[in-house]
Amino acid sequence: IRRCAPLSDTSSTETTQTSELADIEWDNLGFGFLPTDYMYLMKCAQGGSFSNGELQRFGSIELNPSSGVLNVGQGLFEGLKAYRKQDGNILLFRPEENALRMRSGAERMCMPSPTVEQFVEAVKATVLANKRWVPPPGKGSLYIRPLLIGSGDVLGVELSPAYTFLIFVSPVGNYFKEGLAPINLIVEHESHRAIPGGTGGVKTIGNYAAVLKAHTAAKAKGYSDVLYLDSVHKKYLEEVSSCNIFVVKDDVISTPAIKGTILPGITRKSIIDIARSQGFQVEERFVDVDELLEADEVFCTGTAVVVSPVGSITYLDKRVSYGEGGSGAVSQKLYSVLTRLQMGLIEDKMDWTVEL
Ligand code: COI
Questions:
Q1: Among the options 85, 139, 203, 235, which is catalytic?
Q2: CB-based contacts of 11: which residues, under 8 Å, 6+ apart?
Q3: Is the beta carbon of 79 within 6 A of some atom in ligand 1?
Q4: In a 3-state reduction of DSSP, which class is residue 214?
Q5: Which atom of ligand 1 is the closest one to the Cα of 304?
Q6: Which residues contact 70 (CB under 8 A, 6 or more apart)?
Q7: Is the CB of 116 under 6 A from ligand 1?
Q8: How would you label 283-309 residue by residue, b for 16+ Cβ within 10 Å and e otherwise?
Q9: Whole-prediction pTM value?
């Protein structure tokens, strides 16, 4: 591994001076992993706190087979994006929100976590070091994946004695193969993503392993993703494997309330604020699965999926379609405001973007 200068010196290293674009086909980005130049690593030894983070050449990391993340699943991830503006500068979207969410997830998973400042500085350094991988304006974004894992040795059910905070990045386009076209969801009625008191409300890696079975089966049947119901009443909407869900009826926008079993999405929260600022009424509440039958529009939100209109939902033997398979006016409006803000095309009155 070739080591770079410590974090505080990164602005003067060769890593930040590369402004040309990587030599890849920028028109065909999907949502798949592409290795880039640098990753960021910071460690926390037993009883200590995170310090001495540094950029390293991107590559495999060494992990003992007995590490906490591999044996008891002590791990969290985050996701955020960087966009290249027309003037070449780069914008991050609300990185301190990801830092705060990692801190609350770390508390639930009994892990120490970087401070908000350490997290945000590490994200900035990693993006700048990989600047040539930030897609040209309009071609996609650089997806940033911070990880927090138990990297010390365990054998029983116990806390990892050491932790690693890591960031890698990958250029991405649309999450769903449908691109910006409406997606088709299926409501899962046998398994559940989360239980009250569990870890559904934090971004622990196990939440994503738990949905793989239903997700894989749904994809094999041609659906884009799976919509989960609550595990107690088995009738209230929770979230989709990779994103939050919104239902529109008569210009009122409703979304499942945050109550510990769904992820408090940063795009979800931003879309609620944008919708209210555009004059929509937004309700965070229990949303009954039967409301899908009457809805005018349904859409999903998430860092990866941005705002994705839903074209149809299948529940048991019923299939309901929205807007004759077209994208609804409300989701189009919200998508447009959010993405123009993230790309620096409109004034950021919310003070959400961070320019590098
Ligand atoms: C994100 O939107 O960043 C997520 O973490 C979802 C992920 C499963 C792609």
A1: 203
A2: 128
A3: yes
A4: helix
A5: 2
A6: 63
A7: no
A8: eeeebbbeebeebebbbbbbbbbbbbb
A9: 0.93
